[in-house]
Amino acid sequence: VEGRRVRGGDDAGVLRTASVVIATGGFASDYTEDSLLRKHRPDVLKFATTNTKGTTGDGHKMLVEAGAKMLDLEDVQVHPTGFVNPADPGNMVKTLCAEILRGEGGVLVNRWGRRFVNELGTRDHVTGEMLRVDNETLRFAIVLNAKQADKAFTHMGLYQKKGLIERKETLEDLAEWGFWEGGVTAKALSASLKEYDQDAKKGSDPYGKKFFHNVPMSGAGPYYVGVVTPVIHYCMGGVAISPGGDVLREDGSAIPGLYAAGEE
Ligand SMILES: Cc1cc2nc3c(=O)[nH]c(=O)nc-3n(C[C@H](O)[C@H](O)[C@H](O)COP(=O)(O)OP(=O)(O)OC[C@H]3O[C@@H](n4cnc5c(N)ncnc54)[C@H](O)[C@@H]3O)c2cc1C
User: Fold this and answer.
1) Residue 79 alpha carbon to ligand 1 centre in Å
2) How far is CA 92 from CA 88, 119, 227, in A?
3) What ranges make up the beta strands (E) of the chain?
4) Residue 123 falls in the annotated catalytic set
5) Residue 238 contacts residue 264 (beta carbons within 8 Å)
6) Atom number of ligand 1 nearest to Cα 55
7) Residues 6+ apart with CB under 8 A from 55
8) Closest Cα to atom 29, ligand 1: which residue?
9) Which of 41, 60, 79, 115 is catalytic?
C-alpha cells in the first residue's frame, strides 16, 4: 500500500503516504447492491438500523479486495429497541431507544397491550421474544410512568422533542392511542399494569424479571409511550489485525503499510 485515492467534488487524485489506516466503521447500514449484510446475514435485512446511512462497510470491501483475512462477519448485533418515528415510519435509519428507559422500569407491550418479556433481558433475548410474539409487524410499545420518565429526563426530553415519545394524561388517553390492535381498552391496559405491579411486589414475573424499578405502573397517569422495533446495531466481525494494527492476509502475513482500527 503506497497511498490512497481521494475524491472531493469533481477533483480526484492519489495521496501518497507511507501508511494507510482504514477506520470506516461497521456495515450495519449496508443495504447496498453489494451488501455485506445480504452476503453474511440476509436474515437481518428486514430490520432498520441505528447506524448512519454511510455505515456501509466501504473499508471492509476495500480490505477484501486487498486480500485481507476477514473474521466473524456474520456476527451482527440486533438491538431490540429502535424508535419508529410516527412521522416517518418507513425510514430505515432509526433513533436508538436507549436501554435507560427499560432500566428505569419502562415496560414493553405488544399490539394487544400485553407484556411478553423480561425487559431487562439481554438484547438477544428481548429481540428473540419480539420475533416470537409479533414477527408480522415487528412493532411494540414502550410504556413509562411519570417517575420513570423523570429519572430518564435527559433522554426523554430529546425523544419527546423528536416526536418519538408521546405523553398520555390518563389510561383512557393511552387506550385511545392509534397503535393498539383491535380496540385495547383502558380496562385491559389497567389489568395488564396491575398484574405487573403484583409481580413487582412478589419480586418475580412469568418472564424471569427480578428487578422492578419505579413502580407502580398502574397509577393515574401520565404515561409516556413510543413505538419500538428491533434494529441492526453493531458489527462484531471485521478484518484480522496484528497487535500493532497491521492488516493480515489469510496466511497471517501483514500487508505492508495497511492498518485498521475500530469496528472493522
Ligand atoms: C446509536 C448508537 C449508540 C451507540 N452506543 C454505544 C455505547 O454506548 N457504547 C459503545 O461502546 N458503543 C456504542 N455504539 C457503537 C460505537 O459507536 C461504534 O462501535 C463506534 O463508533 C465505531 O467506531 P469506528 O471508529 O470504528 O467507526 P465510526 O465511529 O462509525 O466512524 C467511521 C467513520 O468513517 C467514515 N467513513 C465511512 N465510510 C467512508 C468512506 N468511504 N470514505 C470516507 N469516510 C468514510 C464515517 O463517516 C465515520 O466518520 C453505539 C452506536 C450507535 C449507532
Assistant:
1) 16
2) 9, 24, 15
3) 3-8, 11-16, 20-22, 48-49, 70-71, 76-83, 107-109, 140-145, 166-168, 223-235, 238-239, 246-248, 254-260
4) no
5) yes
6) 37
7) 25, 26, 27, 28, 29, 30, 49
8) 25
9) 79
List, in sequence order, every residue forming a beta bridge with 77; answer none if it has no partner.
234
Identify the pLDDT of residue 4. 86
Q: Which domains does the chain have, with CATH numbers?
A: 1-41+56-75+239-264 (no CATH), 76-235 (3.90.700.10)
Please report, for residues 37, 78, 145, 264, the alpha-carbon distance to residue 32 in angstroms, rounded to integers and kept in the order given. Answer: 9, 19, 40, 18
Count CB-CB contacts under 10 A for residue 11.
Answer: 7
Query: Rounded mean pLDDT of 89-94?
Result: 97
The residue whose grid cell reads 432500566 is: 103
Contact status, residue 155 vs residue 232, Cβ threshold 8 Å: no
Find the angle CA(54)-CA(56)-CA(59) to the nearest 5 degrees: 105
Which among 180, 174, 172 has a CA at the least distance from the CA of 139? 180
Cell numbers standing for residue 123: 438484547
Residue 183 has pLDDT above 80, yes or no: no
The Cα–Cα gap between 145 and 147 comes to 6
More confident residue, 33 or 127: 127
pLDDT on residue 8: 85
Which cell numbers hold the place of 150?
423523570
The question of ipTM being above 0.95 is answered as yes
At 164, the amino acid letter reads L
93 Cβ closer than 6 Å to some ligand 1 atom: no
Task: Identify the DSSP state of 257.
Answer: E
Which cell goes with 161? 422533542
SS3 per-residue string spanning 38-97: HHHCHHHCCCEECCCCCCCCHHHHHHHHCCECEECCCCEEEEEEEECCCCCCCCCECCEC
